[in-house]
Amino acid sequence: MRVGLYEKLVRAGATRRDILKGAASMAAIAAASGAGLGALTRPASAASELRAQILQIPGVGKGQPTDADFQKVGELCLEATKANVKEGEFAGVEFTFMGLNNQNLHNVLFRGFLKPWEAYTGAKISWIDLAQADYNARLQQSIATGTVDFDIIEMGAPFEGDVCGKGLTSEMPDWVKEQIDIDDLVAYLKPPVGTWDGKQYRVTVDGDTHNFNYRTDVFADSDLAAAWKADSGDKSGLTEWGVPKTWQQVQAVTKFLKGKKFKGEDVYGYLDAPKPWGGFGFYFLGSRASAYAKHPDDKAWLFDADTMKPRVNNPAWVRAIQDVIDALPSEPPDQINADPNTTGFQQFLAGTGSMIPWWGDIGSNVKTNDSSVIGDVTGFSILPGSDDVYNSKTGQWEKLASGPNHSPNCAYLGWGVYVMARVDSDEKKKKAAWSAAAHLGGKDLSLWTAMYPSGFQPHRKSHFNIPEWVAAGYDEAFITSYLKSEGDSYNHPNAAIEPRIPGIFQYYSAAEDILANTFAGKMKAQEGADAIAAAWEKLTDQIGRESQIKLYKASLGM
């Protein structure tokens, strides 16, 4: 159910119990309110019964899932495979799967999900597990040396230019599109994402956007509210103590909290992630920069679309870099050595810090990860805005008549499963590889991964049915806030969209290395930004400026 429809029902008098009861009460509410409920008024189907069943494995609040849980979920979701594959049909087939082992998720879950698939089909899978920081280098080496040694890869859309653009991937068969219900994906993950030259290559298993995660208890504390009121420092318009709405307010709150106590412990504001992370850490600077750099009248924010001249050294990006430099002294000791895994899983979930940007993983992990101590005190929104936004076309900062500029960072466009073209010469192996990919990208299994620690976040329209989350054990207010932050980010008219161009992670990795020196005080913000821009210009010339311009424009829908 869409958040808006759910809220409409509540305003019409529906309680959570009413919504969960099903057809009779829902039909009555529809008659009273005039809301069109569609499929929600139909009797529960076998599919909805299956979804309800798997969402109780192990059950929200009942401990972190184990490999036994992964296997059980994988087995219960095998019916779609059985409709397309005979038992033992892939006996003798062996193939290799390359993906992540980040936070003991990704490939770790895939193994469990696919064990019952292997038992049923007879195929055997070998695994290549990579740390997130090592992923880009390993993939680029395989491409550059022509030594692709895997048949399936877990990969993000930013790499499609490097991989699909070089003809290394197998085109998705029509039966796979039907099995995974590809039309159920949220709009921003539909083509051109997952495609190249009009051909579909990706089974989407994740949607990506950075949302804003914050501690509701910290921002409701009366002692901190009194101290904030008495403080004479810059408050950037946050007159009453509460959750910051702009990056200017985030800075003010972070500096204010330095040296403060909350429940007898040191309390910190925003958590930056300055340590390089294989290119993926650049997204966290991007989330600080997007509201400054992404003007509503301009689709581009990383490069000038007509020339590929980098914008990373313009005043907007330099401000974001300076923000990190200025905030680090108010953050936990040794924050300079924190990467995003540290900020999300070792700090925020464990109770350190009161604000972070992260992918949607945090939203499910605060309720289902054994290390989380903040399950009942976490709130969500889109990323903070900015009081002003830089206009790259005029070279001026502007204050919008509509208020602060917001630009959610739709970072990475989610993980997908791609089958490599090297299987195409063997029809049996090709079908087996695509069947495995389709199993991992199944509609029902995907809901489980969105609700539990997996490395993946909501990415289908069907993932926004709030009563399913509530029935699984999520608090109604919590999950409404979480899903709203996801949906509002995906659908924001000024979202900062990931460019699917060749070499994008070479750009990001080069930036990370320079930023590490900048944050360590070896370069000033402008100097670091200029060094990144120079490195990016060199990369663009190496890859081919004219082709990059063409592909960059296409990725932005220009």
UniProtKB/TrEMBL annotation:
Top-rank taxon: Bacteria
Protein name: ABC transporter, binding protein
Organism: Mesorhizobium metallidurans STM 2683
PANTHER family found in the cross-reference section: ARABINOSE-BINDING PROTEIN-RELATED, DIACETYLCHITOBIOSE BINDING PROTEIN DASA
